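FIELD: query
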Amino acid sequence: MIIHHVSKQHSILSKFIAEIRDKEIQKDSLRFRTNIERMGQIISYELSKTLNYKPQNIVTPLGVKQMQVLDDNIVLASILRAGLPLHMGVLHIFDDAENAFISAYRKHTSDTKEFDIKVDYVATPSIEDKVLVLVDPMLATGQSLVAVYEKLNQFGTPKKLHVISIIGSRPGIEFLEKKLPDAAHLWIADFDEGLNGKGYIVPGLGDAGDLAYGKKL
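FIELD: result
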């Protein structure tokens, strides 16, 4: 897997990462969602440099100019519900993309900390020979992303796989390296070293879904 640590070179992205981590700024859910969207746009711009383009003649009011236009069919797939703000940010850049939505959650098998990933709902177009962009803001254990990718493979074989995440853990990244194709790309804004006993990123930022949309039962 090819890893792109997008904030390694400091930019305005670093400010947005700091704000979504800040427990006081997090109290403004609109600002939290907006920052996630903005980060999705920044990362998508970097990702766009790796895609395929073709020449096309564009007619202006005063003549014709040959330009380079995107030559890849993109399917943008998000894990509900936390992935929605990031999805919208990416969609602002790849506005012609087809869209897929998947419900995946941790289902604890007992009173222990062990859990399985349950995929309940999938709405997707065919991904055959398309560029699959899978987005999830928090890459903790990596199990949800792998379960969703395996589920989507029932709908075709993508020619390329890109994963966009905001904050990941080293164990989660290592898990993806074992489970995803070698040619897959991971675009990640920042990462932390570890997980706590419940499988959440430390120091991370908390529950992205709750921060964006309110606490769930």
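FIELD: remark
The chain has one domain: 2-213.
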